[in-house]
Structures are given as C-alpha cells and as structure tokens.
Amino acid sequence: xxxxxxxxxxxxxxxxxxxxxxxxxxxxxxxxxxxxxxxxxxxxxxxxxxxxxxxxxxxxxxxxxxxxxxxxxxxxxxxxxxxxxxxxxxxxxxxxxxxxxxxxxxxxxxxxxxxxxxxxxxxxxxxxxxxxxxxxxxxxxxxxxxxxxxxxxxxxxxxxxxxxxxxxxxxxxxxxxxxxxxxxxxxxxxxxxxxxxxxxxxxxxxxxxxxxxxxxxxxxxxxxxxxxxxxxxxxxxxxxxxxxxxxxxxxxxxxxxxxxxxxxxxxxxxxxxxxxxxxxxx
Length: 282
Fold this sequence. Notes:
The chain has a single domain (3-280), classed as Alpha-Beta Barrel (TIM Barrel), CATH 3.20.20. The chain is globular. The chain has helices spanning 27-36, 46-52, 54-61, 82-101, 121-134, 136-142, 165-175, 187-190, 196-203, 236-245, 267-280; strands at 14-17, 41-45, 67-75, 106-110, 145-148, 181-186, 207-212, 252-254. Helix 10 links the parallel strand 7 (207-212) and strand 8 (252-254). The protein has eleven helices and eight strands. By secondary structure, the chain is α/β, with parallel strands linked by helices.
C-alpha cells in the first residue's frame, strides 16, 4: 500500500517513547515535556526508571493524566547456564513488578541472542519459550501483559532470537495464554518481511503495541541509528494500514534510537518534528 493511501491519524493516538529523547531529558523533564507539548501517552525506558526507582516514577506520573503504554524492555533469557538463568528470570520478574508499579499497559519482551556457548538456534528458542511459559502465572497475578517484540534478523546474534511476526504468532500459539502474552509490532523490525500482511492478520487482537520509526538508506548502527518517520525507506502508512486492518486501534508509539542525529538535537525541537511527521509520514 502506498503512502498516498493512508488515512489521517488522530493526534490523540500519538505516544512518545522516552528513548526518543533519551540523552536530553531526565524522566521528570520528559513527563513535563509531554504535558507542555500536549502529548497524552508515553512509553517508559527501563534504564531511566532504574535511575530513580519505579515508585518515584509512579509519583511523578500521578495526576498528570498521561497514559503509559509500555515499559521497555526486559528479557534476555537465552543463557544455557542454570545459575545465570535464575538471575535472568528474577530480573524479568522485577521488570514485571516495575510495569505494574507505573501502571504501564505492557512490558516489552526482548528474548536475547544466541549464546556463544550454545549455537543451536532451535534449542535457544525452546529455552525462551519454556521460560516464558514458566512466567505465565507470575505475570497474570501482577495483571501484566508481556509484549513479544520480534526484532530484525540481524539482531539474532546479540539481542533477540525472535525475528519475525510469524515466530511471535507461533510462540503465542504454543503459550496458549493470550490474556498474558501479546505481540509488539515495530516498523523498523518487520518492514522487510514478505509474509508481514498475512502474519499481521493472523495476529489480530494479539497486537498490543505498534511502534513507528524509519530505516535509513545509510544506516550506520543496526540498533542506534533509526530514522525519523519519512526520512527512510519504510512504507510506514502501508504497515499502519495492515496493523489497523488486523484490528489494532490504539496508540501509535514513536520510538527512535538515534545516537547520530536525534539524540543530539534539542528535545523540544525533536518533539515538534515528531508531531509534524505523525501527520505527514505515519
């Protein structure tokens, strides 16, 4: 679907991920900035949350009226070592607790990459699935949804062995707990997939988060050089149309990791441009 086919977005659906201004603002400055710019929804970055603690961030949010769509990110549970596994699961439980403490709608789950001690992709993915299944009761008791976020295949060796919407759907089928596990779709991570439209329709109401950003033609860092919407190669309006056709109608989350460009700009300028591009390029 071409960009010309997109429908106009309601500005009330704009959500800004804290990572978009990660280097410029503290959490309090971020919350204040969202109110100043009239943005009603945020996603929080867990490293920033750790700086002051979940209870303090919850206090900052109280009375602001801001919706918190998600806390990003936790996981990295691919290790084959038993002792490391215990520590990784404990950390994931802490992230679930943090998500509940700040009232976030979901916890972004990043699986972890292939461990050099075990280069078997199939066994690595099985370990992740088994460990997620073991967390089902804990997340359900906390009232938290875990968003399985497929990342680009080039992250398989470092960040995630979950690399396609199809795999995310397959995992949800195995887990059989749609009240706990959903799927996060990020344009940067899935735009390459020739099965995307079919798998988005298959996902349907499992899609609980939708992130937008762009893939630059001269990308210099796989993770930290994302583009502002409209500056790259992704047909973002086309993917949004697919996601909405699958039944998603909630917030559209702008999530831009950009050490080369946007993290060096004035944060207020970044947000003004985000709001402009939300209307013209999403």
